[in-house]
Each structure stands twice: as C-alpha cells, then as structure tokens.
Design goal:
Elements: E1 5-10, H1 17-30, E2 39-44, H2 50-59, E3 64-68, H3 85-90, E4 93-98, H4 101-107, H5 111-124, E5 127-132, H6 136-141, H7 144-155, H8 161-164, E6 168-171, H9 185-203, H10 205-210, E7 212-216, H11 224-228, E8 235-238, H12 245-260
Parallel strand pairs: 1-2, 1-8, 2-3, 3-4, 4-5, 5-6, 6-7, 7-8
Helix pairs in contact: 1-2, 1-12, 7-9
Bound molecules: 2-phosphoglycolic acid.
Residues 10, 172, 177-178, 216-219, 237-241 line the site of 2-phosphoglycolic acid (PGA).
Length: 261
C-alpha cells in the first residue's frame, strides 16, 4: 500500500522567535507546492516559536504543517511550565513529537507518560509522532527489535486501531542522533519492519499498512534517498539538517523524487 512520505524537522532547542520566522520564510520561499502531492512536510519548532512559524506558512498558503516537540496530558491546571493539547490545537499544531530519546534520557519521560500523551493528543485531534529507539548497549546486546517493539506496545497500550492509524512512529536509534553516524538503510529497514510487524500484531494488517514509520538519526540530503527507498521507511524525522532552509528543502525534494519513482 502506498503511504505518503513525511519529512518532519525537529528543531529541538534552536532558534529564537525572530530566527524561527526568518528560517520559515526561507523554507516557504523555496518550497514547491507540488511536493505536497506525495510528501507531508512538517516543521517542529520550540513551543514559543510555534505560532509565528504557523503564521508564516499560513500567510504564504504553504502546505507545510506545524508540530510541537512535547505536550502535557492533562487539559489544564497546576503544571508549571507545561503546555496542553488545547493550547497546541488552538495555534494550528497538527502534530506533536512524543517520547523523543532526549526527553526520555534527559527529562525522565517514561513509557507510561508517552502513552498518556499519545491518548491526550488523539483526543484533541493532534497526530502524535511517537519516537522509539535503542541505545548502543541494547544494539550491541542484540536485543534491538525486542526493546524497540516493547516501546511501541507501551506507547499504544489501550489505543484502538482507528485511533492508532492517525499516529506516526519514528524509529530513532540513539547512537545515530546528532552523531553523524546514520543507521544503514538495511539496519533501519530491519527495525522499521519489526515495528510494522508489531503494529500488525496489535491492529491488523490494514491499520499497520496505513501507518507511517519514519527513520531519524543523522538523516541528510545525501542519505535520505536510500533510506526512504526502503519498504518500511516512510520518511524522516530530522534534527540537524532541518535547521538550514537549503538542506531541509533538499530533503523534501529528494523524498518527492523518491515517491514519484
Ligand atoms: P539528527 O536528530 O537528525 O540531528 O540526528 C534527529 C532527531 O533527534 O530527531
């Protein structure tokens, strides 16, 4: 089944409001609307930049969506420093990254919290981009598939197939993030196939075939084509290479070329 490819930029904690607007203007100025025929393009800036970034794409009538990098699962209340799904929804967020390895390792985000966030986002009509991925220790121990698939099962616990279909999964091996060391297309394909097998087991083939599984970890314009050519890799979640308009545009362009093959 043909799934639309997705190129999602994860800016992490980069770009002030003014810098974010300038970068988005560059992206918008160089974006070709026909890429939207086969590629979903998403930009995930820091929360404080979301509204400005959304405004640039909206003003230019660009088919580029905006996503957040984190959310809290409660609708409102005494949670100092947190942001709710309703706040994201109102400013035009269509996606939200959850369970990124930096949040799991640096901020103690647990599988249970990822599951709560996923359910809250679906309730609000925001598509979660659920990150999973193994450390080098897990890979060296030979238990990558088990580890990653357990993260998938935990994230989707109690979620039915109809809802799950709205989610995107991003496989991001921790050892490949920001290191310049990309998983080979074969390594990435193997784990993405295992993720899809897990989703098939949970939700059946029809739902699993409809869900996007992205690869993330040092993806760049030079390696995107070989990665998205793999059967079970439906695009990328990109950090470093999403911070320059030129490389981000090249990533979308390459995904479009691959999708048209
Ligand atoms: P990277 O980051 O592309 O800089 O490796 C990817 C990510 O963390 O989402």
């Amino acid at each position: 089944m043909a799934r639309r490819l997705m190129i999602a930029g994860n800016w992490k904690m980069n770009n002030t409001y003014a810098e974010a607007v300038v970068l988005c203007q560059h992206i918008s100025n160089n974006f070709c609307k026909e890429w939207d025929d086969c590629v979903d393009t998403v930009v995930c800036p820091p929360a404080i930049d979301l509204k400005g970034v959304w405004g640039v794409f909206e003003f230019d009538n660009m088919p580029i969506s905006v996503g957040a990098q984190n959310v809290h699962w409660e609708p409102s209340g005494a949670f100092t420093g947190e942001i709710s799904t309703g706040m994201l929804k109102e400013i035009g967020c269509q996606y939200c990254i959850i369970g990124h390895s930096e949040r799991r390792t640096l901020f103690g985000e647990t599988n249970e919290q990822v599951n709560l966030k996923l359910k809250a986002l679906l309730e609000a009509g925001i598509a979660p981009i659920v990150c999973v991925g193994e450390s080098l220790e897990v890979r060296d121990a030979g238990t990558t598939d088990e580890f990653v698939c357990a993260q998938v099962r935990a994230a989707f616990a109690g979620v039915d197939a109809g809802k799950a279909k709205q989610c995107v999964v991003a496989y991001e091996p921790i050892w490949a993030i920001g290191t310049g060391r990309t998983a080979t297309p074969e390594q990435a394909q193997e784990v993405c196939a295992a993720i899809r097998a897990t989703l098939t087991d949970m939700y059946g083939a029809e739902a699993a075939e409809a869900m996007r599984v992205l690869y993330g970890g040092s993806m760049n314009p030079g390696n995107v084509e070989a990665l998205v050519a793999q059967d079970d890799i439906d695009g990328g979640l990109i950090g470093g290479a999403a911070l320059k308009a030129e490389s981000f545009i090249d990533l979308v362009k390459a995904a479009y070329a691959q999708a048209r093959k």
